[in-house]
Each structure stands twice: as structure tokens, then as C-alpha cells.
Amino acid sequence: MTFKKMIGVVGVVGTLAACGGGGSQTPIVAQTAALTSANQNIAAQDTASASYLPMVGAQTLTGAQVTDESVLFSLARAQLDKLPTYLAKAKANSTLIGAVQSETMACSFGGTVTASVTDADNNGVVSAGDSVTIAGNNCIEPEGTLTGSLSFAVNNLAGTFGSSSYSASLTMNFNGFSVTSSQFSANANGALTVSITANGMNTGGLTVSATSLSVAGTYAGVTRSRTLSNYSATSTRSPNLTYGYTTSYTMSGTLTSSALSSQAISFTTSTPFVSRPSDYYPSSGVMVITGAANSKVKLTALSATQVKQELDANGDDIYEASTTVAWNTLM
Length: 331
Hints:
Helix content: 10-25%
Strand order of the largest sheet: 1-2-3-4-5-6-7-8-9-10-11-12-13-14
Radius of gyration: 20 Å
């Protein structure tokens, strides 16, 4: 998964409400992995990609994107963009306040998808208290076959949803939400909470959090599963005289990965990652990954193409090994 898939998050908050959700799931308690020279590359790759995964929903699908779990979040974003349409249709079909309106629609290449809409105040526009559940019934789209369900709940909203100036908090739940094709399969379970602020062109912010979010995928015969616990991420876009705007990211949480024998590691951006609109990867910023006995892997962005990867295997806060790798080997 490439960083370029994430850099549009804040820039489109004026036209996009991002994935939302909260949840009552209990984080998985797993043994903590010791970070060593043998697993530092896996730890760096899994953390760098997974920490951005819930933020991917603001980007349009690309060819590369449909071969990994990020397709789940891009499809979720596409459904969230349709919230105003779903609410308008519900209003047209009902005069009862708070009634659930269901509509079943044909998918592009077979199967159906059912949208169940609750317009809490029956005003036909997105507002606090509204909710939508999307359920795939062997729905075949270009990305693959969709099954399971995805739900959205609007917790609060100030301004007009999707405009250039508004703020919102949403809840998004994945319930066995899956995409399967001849090349790959992916599924997600859990909830996200998202807060969005749009303040005009190239100015806005997005915060995503999750108590527990599990994502699994199979590609090229290899299956992996990852769970983010106590996860929090922010994306902030600000005007910039040289580049038009820059986007900064912070992430923290715990990752449990099958690639690490289902053991856990924690991560945080000690210095926010910053990207420019023409770059695929951040040109500055630092992420620290921590394992058992204070062992660490540190990722420092050197440029938009290279990142320094350092290892402190004995936990003495002295990095005894260092190498420079290409960003595209991590994400």
C-alpha cells in the first residue's frame, strides 16, 4: 500500500466525510514481540502500512490498491460519499420520522446491495442521528465480490455535510465486510470513530480512532491478519506558499500481526510525517516502533523516496544498526 493513497485525506474533506465509527470491542491482549535483526523488516513493513490503513478511505481506487486490504476502506469511502443520496431517497419514500427505509440495488456485474436508511428527523439531508447500513448480497463490482455489511452513524454535524466548511463526527462499523476476487480476498471487522473539520480550500483536519479493528487478506497465496488496538491517527492539511499545501500525519497504537507470530508491537510518530502534494511518501517525520524489553525500530523519513531504518535490539536507547531503504519497500 502506498503513502500516495493517503495524502488526499484532508484535501477532500470538503467533498468527503471520511470513515467513522466507534466501538465497544475489547483490544486483543497479545504477547509483545521482541524486535531483532531477524524481524525488524517485517515490523517496519507491517507497521508502516497498517498504521495508515484506516486513512486510505479518502483516495480513489488505483490498480495497485485493489490487491490489498486498503480496497475495503476505499469502498467504504465510496459508500460514505453516497450518504446524501441515501438520505434524500429515504425522505422521498417515507413520511414517518425515524422509520427505516430499505432499498435493494443491482450491482455492476451481478448480485445486489441493500441500503437500510434511518433519517432521524425526516429532513432528507445528512444530520445528527441519521444512520445507513450497506449490506452486500454477492454484489459483484470491478474490485471484486462484496459481502458482509458496513454501517455509518452520524453522531454530530455542524454545517452542511460534504461542503467546504463543516465539522462532523461519525461512527463506522465493519461487520464481516469482505471483498473477494480471483487475485485476492480481504475482510474487516471492527469500528472506527472519525472527526472531520473542513475550513476551506487546503485547510482541514481528520482524526480517526479505533478500540479494535481487525483486517485480514490473502494475496498471491499468502494470508495475513492484523489488528489495530487503541489506535489514533490525525491528518492535517495546511496551505503552503511553495507547494500549495502540505499534509502532516500522526499515528499511535498497538499492532498485532500474524507476520510476527500474532505478537504485538506499539508505534507512535515522535515527529509528524509531512508530505507534499506531488510526493508518494513523506519527506520528513519519525515513527518509533517499540517491542518487548524496550527494543525499538525507528523510521526516519530522509526524503520522499528514502527512509532510514534503525534498530535498538537491547532496549538501551542506542540504535546499533542502521540502513537506508526505499519508501516503497515499506508501503
